[in-house]
Write a structure and sequence with these properties.
The chain has about 600 residues and is an alpha/beta fold. The chain folds into four domains: about 100 residues, no CATH class; about 260 residues, Phosphoenolpyruvate-binding domains (TIM Barrel, Alpha-Beta Barrel), CATH 3.20.20; about 120 residues, M1 Pyruvate Kinase, Domain 3; about 90 residues, PK beta-barrel domain-like (M1 Pyruvate Kinase, Domain 3). The protein is about 30% helix and about 25% strand. It has 17 helices and 32 strands. An eight-stranded parallel β-barrel has the order 1-2-3-26-27-28-29-30, surrounded by eight helices. Helix 2 crosses helix 14. The two termini are about 35 Å apart.
């Protein structure tokens, strides 16, 4: 063996260890897990150096290159110092106190135990990733849906307090309780409740009568209901999260429906003056069911006519009633200028301000957020679909220039997220609305998610609120979704280590916009490593198998992304019509990946592909 290389490597390792141990790390009395806290801060010290050359040297000597040693960093360094010292026939520089550091097996045991925040893990299933599913609004009135998710393999149910009501959350929780009453203690499902945090979203937009689309340009048969009920609204076909189709409705005069007969046709003249025909297939109590075979777009001036073959019978024509009102379309193009305001007002197009006409004005749901934004800062709307830059700022308005939009323009919609990645938003994660919602959910929540967590203070604020409300030991998960949260992650992890059970969520939707899409893969890898050093369990979230969930056909890239998620202790699925199948597919993917990976360590077991 190359003794010069061994000496050089031993010297580098010893210097590295001495640097890490140079200043004693102080551990607060509030820290529940001293070993995890120490290892976290030792790892942070180690990452002050470029160790790539040392890693190559270690690998060439057949030793661990430190790349998978985040959870027990000093222990690994000590072991390698011992081995290299023996190869040189010299006494190791390690001291007796070096046995105090957490070992590889102790770290694995601790990570295994901490991962049970997401549900009991059998020893035979060590580090098997759990699956969380977000419950849609209609789950509160559909207990069978929740039971089907559980049967398919969901381990955790996510309730999002940004939507629905305390009554709806309570109904969901009662169904989950029923599921657990029929299960063994080791097979209980968990309830994860997301606190909404300081929502920064686009405000409501001025309403206008909608142009209603009915039928299909593919010339497929589509159902249309003609209704004379006073409450009926003319609206287009819709599909809910379960894939259930609600046909289009055209509200018309009662006398018109009385004249309709099964088997006859109704002539429709749409807003483009095109003729379409509705075949009456059934007469109901206060409506009739029709079929249309071509696409039509109707408004309040479109006409529906019954034309009789018998010329003695008079033609009857009506107009659609109660046209559905929808938000006015705000379509923006690159170089357009819009105003974002913190005033309470409806958004709309063509806004005049200070003698100048702007493409649109839109309000921001969070009144404080605009205070922290500066001229030149970037702004993104709707998961980055629209990009802007702040050109001017006044007390209540941001004048922004569109820098990114589709070629045919992008539509600004209501209640879509607004991100300010260059702005340091000094906002508390726990809002007054969250404090109100906490009172409704503490009785059943197993885990609470802190949205928009940006510092350790946010964790302590939630702990303080929980202390006032309950004696239950509710786990806390910090959602990492801003650039500032990434920077302050060591502080957030240190604060979470004052809790008896805690975790991190990599919330990749907002995070991708904040750090830049091209940097997301790198940043999430860094987060995984830092969490491993603190033995902190991780949830991998946002757009996992999104196309499968919504359209029943996953992309190849989504499959690979889901497979990478085996590094996490839990993967979060969102809502969609094909949720049950998606849960099963994700479980299959994870089962295969766990055969060849344990976190970030490859397992060289017997190959099923090439074994002889």
């Amino acid at each position: 063996m190359d003794k010069i290389l061994i000496k050089e490597t031993l010297k580098s390792l010893t210097e590295l260890k001495n640097y890490i141990e140079k200043d004693k790390i102080k551990v607060s009395k509030e820290i529940k897990d001293r070993d995890s806290y120490l290892n976290l801060h030792q790892y942070l010290k180690l990452r002050n150096f470029d160790l790539t050359k040392l890693q190559d040297n270690l690998a060439s000597l057949g030793l661990s290159s430190l790349g998978a040693s985040q959870s027990n960093i000093i222990y690994t360094v000590n072991q390698e110092i011992e081995i290299l010292s023996k190869l040189l026939n010299q006494k190791s520089s390690n001291s007796k106190n070096d046995n105090d550091y957490i070992s590889y097996f102790q770290a694995q045991k601790k990570m295994f135990k901490n991962s049970e925040i997401f549900g009991k893990v059998l020893k035979s299933d060590i580090f098997k990733t759990k699956v969380m599913i977000t419950l849609p609004s209609n789950a509160s009135d559909n207990p069978d849906m929740i039971k089907e998710f559980a049967k398919s393999g969901a381990n955790i149910f996510r309730i999002n307090t940004a939507h629905d009501s305390a009554e709806a959350w309570d109904k969901m929780a009662k169904t989950i309780k029923e599921i657990n009453e029929k299960r063994d203690r080791d097979n209980q499902v968990k309830i994860y409740v997301d606190l909404a945090g300081p929502k920064i979203r686009t405000g409501y937009i001025r309403k206008t009568k909608a142009a209603i689309k009915i039928g299909s340009k593919k010339e497929q048969e589509k159902r249309v209901i003609l209704s004379f009920n006073d409450d009926s609204i003319t609206k287009q076909e819709s599909v809910d999260l379960n894939g259930t189709i609600t046909p289009a409705v055209i509200s018309v005069d009662k006398n018109f429906i009385k004249k309709c007969k099964k088997g006859e046709y109704i002539e429709l003249t749409d807003l483009n003056d095109k003729k379409r025909y509705l075949e009456v297939v059934d007469i109901l109590k206060d409506s009739c069911e029709c079929i249309i075979r071509k696409k039509a777009i109707i408004d309040g001036n479109s006409t529906l006519s019954i034309t009789y073959k018998d010329k003695d019978r008079k033609k009857i024509t009506v107009l659609p009633r109660n046209i559905e009102e929808v938000p006015e379309e705000i379509r923006v193009f690159i170089d357009d200028e819009i105003i974002i305001t913190n005033r309470d007002m409806l958004g709309y197009t063509n806004h005049e301000y200070a003698g100048k006409l702007y493409k649109a004005i839109i309000s921001c749901s969070n009144k404080e957020a605009l205070e922290f934004v500066k001229k030149g800062d970037e702004v993104f709307i709707d998961d980055g679909k629209i990009g802007l830059v702040v050109a001017e700022k006044s007390k209540k308005e941001l004048i922004c220039k569109v820098t990114y939009a589709k070629d045919n323009g992008s539509i600004i919609k209501e209640e879509k997220g607004i991100n300010f990645p260059n702005s340091k938003l000094n906002l508390d994660a726990i809002t007054n609305e969250d404090r109100k919602n906490l009172k409704a959910v503490v009785k059943f929540a197993d885990i609470l998610g802190v949205s928009f967590a940006q510092s350790g203070k946010d964790i302590f604020d939630l702990k303080l609120e929980l202390k006032k409300l309950t004696e239950r030991d509710i786990s806390i998960v910090a959602k990492i979704e801003t650039k500032l949260a990434v920077k302050n992650l060591p502080d957030i992890l240190s604060s979470l280590l004052t809790c008896s059970n805690s975790g991190i969520m990599i919330a990749r939707g907002d995070l991708a916009i904040e750090v830049g899409f091209q940097k997301l893969a790198y940043i999430q890898e860094e987060i995984f490593d830092l969490c491993a050093s603190a033995h902190m369990p991780v949830i991998y979230a946002t757009q996992i198998l999104e196309n499968k969930m919504k359209k029943n056909l996953p992309s190849r890239a989504e499959i690979t992304d889901a497979a990478f998620g085996q590094r996490a202790d839990c993967i979060m699925l969102n809502k969609g019509a094909f949720a049950t199948d998606t849960i099963k597919i994700l479980k299959d993917i994870l089962r295969d990946m766990h055969k060849i990976f344990k976190k970030n360590k490859q397992l060289l077991n017997i190959s099923e592909q090439w074994k002889k």
